[in-house]
Amino acid sequence: MLAEKYADKIAKIRSKYPDLRSTVMPLLYIAQEEYGGLDESSLREVAELCDLDPTEVKTIAGFYTMYWENDEKGYKKGKYWLQVCTDLPCALRGADQFFEQLLDHLGVEDGGTTEDGMFTVEHVMCLAACDKAPMLQCNFHFLENLDMEKMKAKIEEWRAEAKERENG
Amino acid sequence: MPDKVEFVTIFIDGEAYQVPKGANLVDVAKFYADNDIPVFCYHPKMSPVGMCRMCLVELGNSVDRQTNDIKYNADGKPEVMWFPKLQTACTTTVTHGMAVRTDTPKVTDARDDVIEFILTSHPLDCPICDKGGECPLQNLTMRHGAGVSRFDFDNKLHLDKHVPLGELIYLDRERCIQCARCTRFCDEVVGDPVLGFHERGRSLQIVTLSDPPFDTYFSGNTTDICPVGALTTADFRFGARPWELNEVPSLDPYGPEGANISLSTRLDRDSGGVTIIKRVMPRQNEYVNEIWISDKTRFGHHHSRAENRLSKPMVRREDGTLETVSWNEALNTIAEVLKKSAGSVGAVAGPMVSNEDLWELRQLVELTGGSKLGIWPATMTGAEAVAQVGVGTGTNFKDMGKGTTIVVVASDLEEEAPIWFLRTKQARDRGAKLMLLTARPTKLDKYAACILRHHHGETLNAVNNLIGAVLSSDGFTFEESRAEGFDTVKKAKYKGDEAGYDEAAKMITGAENVVVLVGHEGLTLAQHGDVMQSAANLLILTGHVGKPNNGLIPVWPGANTQGALDLGFSAEATADALSQSVVIVAGADPVGTDPAAKAFIASADFVIALSMFDTATTAIAKVILPRQSVPERDGTFTNGERRVQRFYTAQGLIGDTRPDWKVFSQLSNLIDPAVKVRLSAAAVMAEITKNVPRYAEMSYKNLARMEKQFPDVGGDDLYYGGTAYGNHGGLGVQWPVDAEAAGKKLTLKAVKSEKTAKRKGLVAVPVRRLYDRSPEFSASQMMHQRIPSAYAQLSRKDAEKLKVVEGDDITLVFGDGKVRVTAKVDGSTPEGVVLVPVNLTDNPVPTAPMAVEVEK
Fold this sequence. Notes:
Number of strands of chain A: 4
Strand order of the largest sheet of chain A: 2-1-3-4
Order of helices and strands of chain A: HHHHHHEHHEEEH
Mean pLDDT of chain B: 93
Largest interface: A-B, 15 and 13 residues
Structural class of chain A: alpha+beta
Oligomer: heterodimer
Low-confidence stretches of chain B: none
CATH class of the largest domain in chain A: Alpha Beta
CATH superfamily of the largest domain in chain A: Glutaredoxin
Strand content of chain B: 15-25%
Number of domains of chain A: 2
Number of helices of chain B: 26
Largest sheet of chain B: 7 strands, mixed
Largest sheet of chain A: 4 strands, mixed
């Protein structure tokens, strides 16, 4: 349960806002990280923590694209959520080819998750880093001035990281 | 609208109008200028959001900035400086000198475009849509639509058409135009945010995650205010076309609020070619229910055509078998018995028995020499307190806001009177303060400014202590001219220093208006009478009586309890009435709903039951007469605010039934041929107006009187208020209380506080749930999933002691009665108390608090 596992974090978030209602978004991020996406039970859990109706929490999760809802997508989010900007300025710098290559490399479709549950790749609208394209956002952190070489290395790095975590 | 309104001059399409400053432009244009500005998302009962853009108008200003006067040109027309772009009327409040143009090509073009935009992905399934014929979008498309689409049909987005939002309401995703009326209604008006928008743009859809889905008592109202056919009720879905329906004004038969409804009826082939109700819609009465009704009111009507309705008179023969007989035989049998009864005749009337029935019943009982007239359920009393200080005539929750304090005593308002719950909550949203004197948390707690929690059964002391705190508060003076008996209050020596009560007292003394709603949870009948009296004392002492929005509102158990009290019936007489040798029970099931009643009625030789259904009472009756349901007949009910209102005949007769007043009148005639048989309900009411001073004004003509209401809903422009129906049945008339009569002195009768007995063992406290298993409601199959199964609620501590966990089957033993229920354990139940909902169990549970043993 989030309340026990993230007691400190939740207390810290709560101290920042005047009421419980306002803590819903940061708590949704915690739930999303913990459960690899949001599903009905996690929405209910967050609702309980924020003293909201679960419906209200669901509408927030639905409105913002940075929340991943398993129930809507039909599958879980990967551990690494790669959001590649393919808007026009980025495309001029080759972002669309980069995106295609990345999909090929990982063997997924746009919006899909790799079979090992490691990566989810999707194209997104402007991330406000046009000058550093091709770029992507991985779990809300920017990686900029990318090409496939760099990307492959990064992917290996992440895989190694995950393996390490698994082993110990 | 409040009295102190500043009026300003505005110009709508060149005409000058005097309108209240700060009012909404859409409302004003409609009410004052009869100019219907089209809207989808705006609704006069909700705050504006400006989402649909349908209400675009040209706005301008004619005020000279220096002088703040309106500038006129040579021909007396205002000189208007028009703003360059169109603006949404729904988000505009009127100001001095504002000018509006609603009929220019610029405006019309903009509206045409909005309609075209909305139609880009709206399906063309009007021929099968329930809303077709009364659809705001359809109507506005006729006015603003292009006639030919510039889009391919194939390009339309096709989405799910049968999404159940719970079992009562269905969502058609394609039809939704995202106006957010339904979600705002749930959130803003009701306070149950159980509907929400999910995702955005074209993928937006309405979702609910509550358990059960769409968990509110008011879900049906969303279908009325939906401007398209996106939300439809399971009840009316594909049931009929709106233009085939007749609208008949009627009343909610269940609650004390007296909600006005409109029964949509038509001749129905599938029902054997009789006129039946196809749906129930709210009927606008701004004094009573505005345009809202609860789901119980909306979906409960199926009881009137239930298959197990009694349809023929029956007489029990010597050997105990029931035989169907003619009305003549049944009535003659009863008349013979009544003639020989030697005055030992009692009558008990249920909560759905109309004033006309009650009057004729009283005449009959008195004709036989009897005098015992009881009501059922016999849980509440206080006719005297109401007659003194009931809420002032003209009271309207809608006018309550800042300066008003609403006090709720011993009631779970949401369950007992949902419309009052809704309006109390809205008054609080407008700035009224809510004070609760309740024994356990209810849904109102989150809105309350002050909660005076006390043990079940100790409500009287809580009210008395509040009086004590009022008396000892700073600057409290009592004008002796107001009422007699102030010394009795002083002598009663109420505690004035209980913690928290001084704040509460300030909320009462400092308020301009005070309304007290009194329920009976945890109280015996005698205790309830005392609480009513004490609440009346509180109001008299602080002078909150005799004017609108001040006074007492009892949360009566039924739709016409007030009427019964007005016509000489009382809860105190019920036990006596049931113990007479001949007992007439009309529209009630005492045997099946209270073990105590069973004991009383056991001594009766001859029970006459007028009932719609087979009940435990009809099982012991010697003669059973079929009753008519409300939609089959006409009559009047008096609501908890003493408003007498009419209901009209809507539906074809089921079986061979007669209205109760006719039955009683015919019986009177059989006993004494000098007594004339009344020929209509109106004729009975004419008798009442002659003989009951309070009802002198209640002729059917007066009750049917109408006045223009704000907002003006129910016209052709359905887009404005939704499909709530305009009122053609009358607004009803309230009878004035003593406090309103000039020169009439009120009486304070102090009630001594009770010594609080040491609490031993568990006490079963009967509670009312909105959805119960009474046959008048549970005959609606569609509601079955919403009716809770028989349960009893225990506190955590008691449950631990008894080693009971949530979901266990337990047996409650009271005296010699036993009930098997499922245990619910939660933190809201006070210790030492078992909350037992009435009308949910197969065996009756006591209707008054009683010691109980819990067995596993």
